[in-house]
UniProtKB/TrEMBL annotation:
InterPro entries: ATPase_NBD, ROK. It comes from the Bacteria. This is ROK family protein. Gene3D superfamilies: 3.30.420.40. PANTHER family: BIFUNCTIONAL UDP-N-ACETYLGLUCOSAMINE 2-EPIMERASE_N-ACETYLMANNOSAMINE KINASE, ROK (REPRESSOR, ORF, KINASE) FAMILY. Pfam families: ROK (PF00480). It comes from Pedobacter cryotolerans. Signal peptide: none annotated. Belongs to the ROK (NagC/XylR) family.
Length: 252
């Protein structure tokens, strides 16, 4: 059985699992970057076993940390992965990834959706804020006064008879229709979000955010991956609520 103890103070190993790369770094409790980012390409056969091998290899040199934050590209509930649309197909249902990483390092783990983790580091903490990540897929995070709301896989809402938001505005969509048409699609999605959510601020990040070629509203801001780094630390300041859940290593 996992042993619950008081969460230790100290530095944080932050891991970001993406469809293209898996990255890690050490953060101070306040979110200061203590090491350079290390990254390894996400294995083509991105099963849980292969991803865990990469995490172990990636983090070999990181010794002094007390807890682990993980951003994962899919739906996560209480440390259990439910979906992973951009990783190995049909291999990620009910995977106790947080427990396996906690046991690997002997440290407590918090595992949430990757856009949610980045969102914690980006938002101002005032009002209703939404974060888009335009990368391999289409990530979204919703926060109110800086607190994460329950994660919604909005990327999988249908936008046409054959495509969901992930396919429509993610990397596949970008390469399928080209930059000009992709920007028109993004404008269309922003208009949908303005109408449906009436957000106070929208932040847009991810690799393809560099391809945006139109003027954004005053309450929309472009952000970089560096802006979201603090999310790995802020995750440990968040209340255990909704999908913020601490997984402790099992007693040996």
């Amino acid at each position: 059985m996992p042993v619950k103890t008081k969460v230790p103070q100290g530095d944080i190993l932050s891991i970001d699992i993406g469809g293209t790369n898996i990255k890690s770094c050490l953060l101070s409790p306040k979110g200061k970057l203590l090491t350079d980012f290390k990254k390894i390409p996400t294995p083509k056969n991105s099963t849980p076993e292969e991803v865990l091998k990469v995490i172990k290899k990636l983090c070999t040199d990181f010794k002094k940390f007390e807890k682990v934050s993980i951003g994962f590209p899919g739906y996560v509930k209480k440390g259990i992965v439910q979906t992973a649309p951009n990783l190995a197909e049909n291999k990620w249902l009910n995977v106790d990834l947080a427990q396996q990483v906690a046991d690997m390092f002997g440290k407590p783990v918090r595992l949430i959706n990757d856009a949610d983790q980045q969102g914690l580091g980006i938002v101002s903490g005032k009002g209703f804020e939404i974060v888009f990540t335009l990368g391999t897929g289409f990530g979204t995070a919703l926060l109110f006064d800086g607190e994460l709301l329950p994660h919604l896989e909005l990327a999988h809402l249908p936008v046409s008879k054959t495509e969901d938001f992930d396919e429509y505005i993610g990397d596949r969509g970008f390469h399928k229709v080209g930059k000009k048409k992709w920007n028109e699609r993004l404008k269309y999605i922003i208009e949908i979000y303005k109408t449906v959510f009436n957000y106070d601020k929208l932040f847009i990040g991810g690799g393809n955010s560099n391809e945006i070629n139109f003027d954004l509203d005053k309450n929309i801001k472009l952000v970089s991956n560096k802006d979201g780094i603090k999310g790995g630390a802020k995750l440990w300041l968040a209340k255990e609520k909704y999908h913020v859940f601490t997984t402790y290593p099992k007693k040996k």
